[in-house]
């Protein structure tokens, strides 16, 4: 298997260029995502009663499903934009065929990470890193939940430490974005999602360098 290596500077440079190219659309779709998916969740968490009723539990479940559904659409849009493919707002909402697989894979992933963290911490981090690309395999193919998780694991072989460094970078950028009056997240979240999509595309292409040559050629 060809050993890959992640060039973080080139990766974020390309992602930044794509963000600039589609800035108005990316900002609009990010605001839409946060208004529909994130703000309701935050509001509910702040103002929900201490002793939840059946009604509040049902509402919480509905908001969680909505957030997951829209997050899949957001990932899809960023995945399309890095390849300069035509996108519309409807791409955030037309992923019903893939959603069940994504929903199941998400909870398998979440439970595995939490169990790993609860046991020895490091296994949880390892699982989070190696299985993180499952949404992309589901979006781009007919992968089942289990198959998508398996493919993510196999494709990231030998890249655990580099993906850890990438993950730390993503976390730092998004924290900085959130600290900047919360407005900066409109820039950092789509930027880091694009960067993750570029890694996925380079992994399935099997290239030694990430980002792959086709993306590097577009970097000015």
From TrEMBL:
Keywords: Membrane, Transmembrane, Transmembrane helix. The chain crosses the membrane at residues 22-46, 58-82, 102-129, 163-187. It comes from the Bacteria. This is Membrane domain of glycerophosphoryl diester phosphodiesterase. It comes from Fodinibius sediminis.
């Amino acid at each position: 298997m060809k050993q890959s290596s992640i060039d973080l500077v080139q990766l974020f440079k390309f992602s930044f260029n794509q963000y600039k190219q589609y800035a108005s659309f990316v900002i609009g779709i990010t605001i839409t995502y946060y208004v529909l998916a994130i703000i309701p969740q935050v509001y509910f968490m702040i103002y929900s009663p201490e002793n939840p009723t059946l009604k509040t539990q049902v509402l919480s479940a509905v908001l969680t499903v909505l957030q997951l559904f829209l997050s899949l659409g957001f990932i899809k849009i960023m995945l399309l934009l890095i390849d300069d493919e035509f996108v519309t707002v409807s791409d955030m909402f037309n992923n019903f065929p893939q959603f069940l697989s994504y929903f199941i894979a998400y909870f398998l992933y979440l439970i595995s990470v939490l169990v790993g963290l609860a046991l020895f911490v490091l296994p949880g981090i390892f699982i989070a890193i190696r299985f993180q690309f499952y949404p992309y395999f589901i979006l781009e193919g007919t992968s089942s939940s289990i198959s998508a998780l398996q493919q993510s694991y196999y494709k990231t072989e030998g890249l655990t430490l580099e993906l850890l460094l990438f993950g730390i970078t993503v976390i730092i950028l998004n924290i900085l974005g959130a600290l900047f009056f919360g407005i900066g997240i409109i820039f950092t979240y789509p930027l880091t999602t694009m960067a993750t999509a570029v890694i996925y595309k380079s992994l399935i292409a099997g290239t030694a360098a990430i980002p792959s040559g086709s993306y590097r050629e577009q970097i000015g």
